[in-house]
Amino acid sequence: ATGIIQRHGQPEIMMANIKSIDLLSHNTPPEPTGIDWSKNPSEYRDRLVKVNGTVRDAFRDEIDKTWDYIQLQCDGNIAYVCLKSKGGEVNYLHKLIDAKISATGIYTPHWGMRRMIGHTIYAMDWDYISIINPAPSDPFNVPMLNDIGDAHLPNLSQTGRRRICGHVIAVWNDRHILL
Questions:
Q1: For residues 125, 130, 131 and 132, what is the CA-based torsion angle, rounded to 10 degrees?
Q2: What pTM was computed for the model?
């Protein structure tokens, strides 16, 4: 390959601007590696990995609408799968919440340049996401929020979907409420 390699943002990130590539040979692509979260995850840096986990959140980037993010709970750790958006409405993202999925992509432990999210897996596209168990059909068939103890509060994002009953005391932007 010919081109220019330069630092991008953070000192440990290098980017290549490739002008041309000459294919010398072609082998079978490597199988993705499963991440053992009990080890130091940085040993998987820039490698093709495959993770299984429960979707805790899924959203479109609020600044760059061409990117979607899936927050996965994997063996007590949180990882984010980043991939190009399908475009249009985000309903397909919301339907993933509480599903168990498998995701394949390039792992990086860096905290991002704009979005400080931690363990990140960059999937090539939606073909690298597969649903192992779909989300429950009734999103309200979940435990009450008051059923969790104080010990869960520091890791609230790992407790999964919860429901709550109360009185609405404020509404803003037509979709946010305060109970």
A1: -160
A2: 0.75
